[in-house]
Fold:
Amino acid sequence: MESLLQWPSLLLIALGVFSFTFLLNALRRRGKALLPPGPRGLPILGNLHMLGDLPHRNLQKLAQKYGPIMYMNLGLVPTVVVSTPQAGIQFLRTHDSVFATRPITEFGKYLFYDRKGLGFSEYGPYWRNARKFCTFELLSNTKIDSFKSMRKEEMALFVRTLKETHDVADLSAKVAQLIVDMSCRMLFGQKYMDESLDERGFKAVVDETMNLAGAFNVADYIPFVGQLDLQGLGKRMKKLSKVYNDFFEKIIDDHLRTKVKGPPRDFVDAMLAFMESKDREFQFDRNCIKGILLDMLIGAVDTAAATTEWVLSELLRNPRVMKNVRDELARVVGMDRMVEESDLGNLDYLDMALKESMRLHPVAPLLVPRESMENITIEGYHIPKKSRVIINAWAISRDSTAWPNPEEFNPERFIGNNADMRGSDCLFLPFGAGRRGCPGISLGLLVVRLVVSQLMHCFSWELPDGVKPNELDMSEKFSLVVPRANHLKAIPSYRLLKDV
Ligand code: HEM
Structure:
């Protein structure tokens, strides 16, 4: 009797298990089918071998075949690549909060004391507070304005030195040095001899940092081979982290030794005061100071230097546009003085030329990678939690539906087009967008505008060795920030009516 009574319940249980398994399999099948399309990969390596020397270009080609939201495996890491403005809006605007964190990488671990900086740190209270602090103490309009006279002094020195050059000038090197000097004065309160950081000089060390930041490090993608450090990147990162650590330790000690009562003298003082204050709401120690200093240094130097280098290259390559820029400068500024920061708001044509150059050459073509913090469905595709998300800003700003004749350098396309540099509509993304968009945009733009306008206003330029404008080499070198592969060189002749 007892066993007979059990039959229905057993049947029910069996039916339940069967339905559950069926449902689970159906869901799995659905989940699989809903992943975005993408190329087949190799075992273990996945699609890593498809990135090549210029990953932004190769990923664009793959996206043309597989679509604007593309799925691939980089080693063992599920990765989603986003390649059009419409798809960009979904990831950087509509669902920005889901993609606001950065993946854990060896670079963040070694260079940033386990992600104690800003750009490579995890989304959460530490990142939020550190970002607020940097914005308030360094990147707000008031702070930027407080360094105006320093910039004026450095610009005048730069123009005077260039005026003495009667031969070919290495514009890439000279502009980089100017930006290093301005950044050091703003961050540390003084300029440093180039070899103070390392015998290679500041710019070379920052370049090495960007190379390591942008490298597809096998250790990040196939963790079990990480220990072997097959590409030697781990070794280079450890060496580099010691270079920065020694330099920042010395700067912090110098600041503590020469401390004075009163308001902070510079950004380091402001961070030290914050570290010592009792009422701070978040953990902030010496490693945080060093991590943030590194973020501000690399954030300010390579990005602005590469952006300036590309704008100057496009102007030299396009004499018609260069003439328009210079005519505007002559009209707005006049020929008897240098450009002042207060002139910049009146240089509309220069601004369009700058935007057009940043559209064609977003210096961080893949931005800084993000990671999804939860499972999410976008445009009908399943994006699994912990996917690496690569925004191909380079492909987005060449999307032919948004930008007719995308390869053409044509500043006039911005007349009546209010696509903005903050990426509000994701049409172009020179500074990224959303929560992780660049906090240094105002400072970065100011420096680029100032340097480009000054060089165009104070000098006429000629390419060396009889190179014609349309023959100028425009090849790129990939890293987190993509500069010219070869330095830009040109011959200046001073053209103002008065000496500076
Ligand atoms: C022309 C100059 C600059 C360009 C083109 C530029 C570009 C960018 C880009 C594309 C990103 C990634 C955004 C994203 O993932 O959505 C970024 C992030 C960042 N930039 Fe800039 N940048 C410039 C200047 C600066 C300056 C002057 C600073 C600071 C002194 C700075 C500090 C940072 C930091 C800290 C981040 C990481 C933000 C975060 O993850 O929360 N940048 N920048």
Observations:
- The mean pLDDT is 92.
- The longest strand covers residues 69-74.
